Amino acid sequence: VPASGPVIFAGNHPNALMDGWLLIAKCGRWPVYFLANAKLWKFRAMGPLLEASGAVPVYRREEYGEDADNSAAFDRLYELLETEQCIGIFPEGVSHVESQLVELKTGTARVALTVTDRGKVSVPIIPVGLNYIRRHRFRSQAYISFGEAIEIDANWLERFKKDSKEAAVGLTEVLAEALRAQTVNAPDWRTFRVTQTARRLYKPATAQLTPGQYVKLNRRFVNQYVKEKNNPDVQKLTEDLENYQARLDLLGIKDHQLRKPLPLGLAMKKVAIRSLRMLLLLPFALPGALLHLPVAWAAAVIGEKFSYEKDDIATLKAFATLLLLPVLYLAISITIGIMAGPWWGFALLVVLPLSFLLSVRLIEAEVGLIMSMMSLIRITRLGSEVEDLRATRADLVQRIRTRVEERV
Predict the structure, then answer these.
(1) How far is CA 295 from CA 313, 321, 345, 356, in A?
(2) CA dihedral 325, 331, 335, 337 (to 10 degrees)
(3) pTM score > 0.85 for this model?
(4) Separation of alpha carbons 368 and 363, rounded Å
(5) Which among 205, 210, 237 is positioned nearest to 221, based on CA atoms?
(6) Residues 175, 150: contact at Cβ < 8 Å?
């Protein structure tokens, strides 16, 4: 990412406003001005925040018809870039939950070509891949990658002068290819699930993947599977993988729990260690957990009930939490400050956020403990079924690794 000068960050768009926040956090430039759907200004809580961030409203033709006039938006983008600012655009046009990149709009290319053609600055486009491991889960991992900049050179400017529409379409195709290289793209969710299962079985237990390695390995599995999916051997392997995953889902067992037999004594030791960890955290985190339960509940309800699209759930949960937590902390601090003195109120403003972090750790420890106990019970009760699944797993691992080795 250039340290100075105008830049267009162009990313895929799987998770609504979370995508913009993640890009701002990791791109190394500030400020970044975004295009945003004009309908977001209808939400009272979002409007002021969008205005404060300098976001530029865009009116989508699908929603506003002939009234969708974006000339002012383009003028604003030209102005920002010619003063060497950074802008962020998601050229898919709308956030979505598809298994692959959807068709890109040509607006990003038109902006880069137009501004560079005006002669004041040259504007590179940097493709940004946003990959969420579990998009709606709190504190789950995400991987953001920045591809090599697409420069608007003399060849692109010549094409633009001859035929602006053709040049914009051609540059958009180059951008789409660059974005595919930074993301995982499966033609459908069945392909994605099958390749996820295969990748999970292929990875040795001793290999600890970073989010970047996880995404790259997924991409390789998807790309190779698409090439070979009509091969009879691959079709049989696909059927067996789906059956294996269905049996795991039915029994409530995770694949990693079948990697090797877990002696009852060792399993109980793991449960005991997690129980001890939770007990140590409990005195410190329980007050914070009880205090934050209403906020967590409200954020979950808002995210699930008021989202108009699946990709908005995480955004609404984050907005609800960011708005409710300061209100809660101020209310408690002011109340205690009035009752016990201002210094106690100020102290609470410091202590309450720390209690939030501790309560998060407590909840994670509780979830880990419950999952461990449930898994232990299932595996103990389902002896013969588990052994059969382990045999099936070993066979699938061998078949997958053989196919991978043949192609390396």
Answers:
(1) 16, 7, 20, 11
(2) 70
(3) no
(4) 9
(5) 237
(6) yes
Is 350's pLDDT higher than 90? no
State the Rg of the chain over Cα. 26
Burial of residue 116 (CB within 10 Å: 0-12, 13-18, 19+) is: buried
Is 78 within 8 Å of 8 (Cβ atoms)? no
Q: Is 9 helix (H, G, I), strand (E, B) or coil?
A: strand
Distance CA(10)–CA(213), nearest Å, equals 22
Which residue, among 111, 110, 116, 125, has the nearest Cα to 167 in the 3D structure?
A: 110
How many of the other CB atoms lie within 10 Å of CB of 176? 19
Instruction: Report residue 244 as tokens.
Output: 């294996």
Q: Return the half-sphere exposure (C-beta side, CA atoms, 13 A cut-off) of residue 223.
A: 12
3-state secondary structure of 3: coil
Assess whether the previous peptide bond of 187 is cis (omega < 30° from 0).
no
Sign of CA dihedral 195, 209, 357, 129: negative
The first and second tokens of residue 35, run together, are: 């295009």
pLDDT tens digits along 1-32: 888 899 999 999 988 778 888 899 999 888 89
> How far is C-alpha 81 from the chain's CA centre?
28
Q: Are 152 and 112 in contact, with CB atoms under 8 Å apart?
A: yes
